Structure formats: C-alpha cells, structure tokens
Amino acid sequence: MRKHTYRLLVAAVLCGLLCALSVPAAVADGVRVLAPPEGLNPIEPPEPPVGGTDYFGYAEFGGTWCDAEKSPTNTEDDEMCWAATASNVLDWTGWGYAPSEGFSGTDDMFAYFQDHWTDVGGNMYYGWDWWFDGTNDKQGEGGWSQVDVAGGGFWEPPYNFDDYCHLQLDPDLAMSAIDDYLHAGYGVGLGLYDSGGHAVTCWGLRVDETTGDYLGVWITDSDDDKNDPTPEDQLQYYSVARSGGRWYLQDFYGTWDEWYIGEVQGVEPVAEPAGLALLALGGVGVILRRRRS
Known about the structure:
Blueprint: E1 53-56, H1 57-61, H2 81-93, H3 106-116, H4 124-133, E2 165-168, H5 174-183, E3 187-193, E4 197-207, E5 214-220, E6 236-243, E7 246-249, E8 260-267, H6 277-280
Antiparallel strand pairs: 1-4, 2-8, 3-4, 3-8, 4-5, 5-6, 6-7
Helix pairs in contact: 2-3, 2-4
C-alpha cells in the first residue's frame, strides 16, 4: 500500500496530523506541523467536574498511561511535543519495543527521537512512519523536523505502518473519533490548534451519564512541567465545549479556551498491551493481532 499523500495547510510553522475514521487514509488530505507555542507554563491539573462517566482505554486493554516530558536543561526537545506524543503511543501500543533495540520506555524512545531528529515542529504520523521504515516523508521540506542521524526502520516489511494507523482530520468529529479509537484499543495522539499547534496524548474521556454528551478528555502533555528539571508524570483532565464545529479545551493551561482538537491519530497495538513485556525483553514470538473498529 502506498504512503499517505499529504499537503501542508499552514500559514505558520505549527500543527499536527490525522485522517478520517470513515474515509480511507490514502485519500485523506491535510497535515500541519505540531510545535509548542509560547506561553505554555506549568499549572496544577484541573479538578474534573462532578458527574459523568470516565472511560480509559488502558483500563480495558491493559497497561497504563505514560508521559514523556521535556526538560529545561535539554536544548534538543523544545519543539518536539509531537515526538513526545509519538513516544507515548509507541510505548503503550508496543511498537516502541523493537526486538532489535533495548528501549526501556517512553522516555527512552523520546530521547531516541531527539538524537535522530532536529528540534523543529513535526508530526506524530511522520515520526511513527519513520520508526517503522526508517524514512521521513517530509525530509528536505522547510519548516518540518528533519532526520539528521539515520535511524528508525525497526518494523520494515512485512509491517506497513499505514495498515495500523487511523486518522481523523475533521475537528467536528474529534470527540467521536477519540471515543471510537479508545474503545478499539488504539493509542491516541491529539493535534491541538490555536495560533499555533501542540501535540498531547489522550488516554480517556468523560461522558454525561444521562445525555451521552462528551464532557472532557484525559491527557498527558510533555509541556506541563517543562520548567522542572525533574518533571513529574501527570494525567490531566480538561473539559471540552463544542462551538462552530470544533471541540475546545476549557481553561487550557489555566487561562485559554481557544485551543481546539483539530486532529485525532490512532495507532493499533502490536499485541495485547498486557503482554508487551515480552517485546521489551526481546520476545519476537509475540503473535500480532490487529484490532479494527
């Protein structure tokens, strides 16, 4: 299967990637560079509102959430929120534990991205695709993170990343895509937009028990402790509000309601998350089982 064909849709150099649940990935169009905007300062995680039912994909499929974090002492991670989100998803789905390598977890995978890519905005999709086949489809294009040290290519044929990737680019369908992807057992990354773009990892959602309306999302964010040299992993909740065909995070970083979910990216797991320890130990005999919604 040929790779997705994408075009850059931004006037500024900041955004993220995805494709539709019901639309074949090969015809999906629309990618943006994801890079953290100025002014994302650490805050205390907001308290979830009373009421509603929480659903976490890992609670049903095994494993747990993880949170690759940036560090103020590291000069190679400032624009790599997309790589941190990519690492979290690689960790939970098992694709990060390539039999040929000895990665210990999401932080180790994030460090590998930093060692092989330039510190520039990018996109989870291209990072994952490179992890599979060792090629960056945006290599040579300005405004995108570039591979400056050869690497990746951990899952070359017969494994084709496009067979495991699901994308939703319609902001109006973002919450339903999150719902579908989590219930299908996918690792989920989000592209958030305002004046720029930012990437976070989504682990759960909250739904009104009576109406079925979407109330909020549970995420991990590489930037929430970026001024702390020893950042603590945090799973945070943000309420969402729908307006004008977009789902906006409420009180994002304590002050903003302008950030909306513009992209949802889902990656199928390599195996049952509960059995991923076999891969971490180099277990090449794990049976691959693909889930589809």
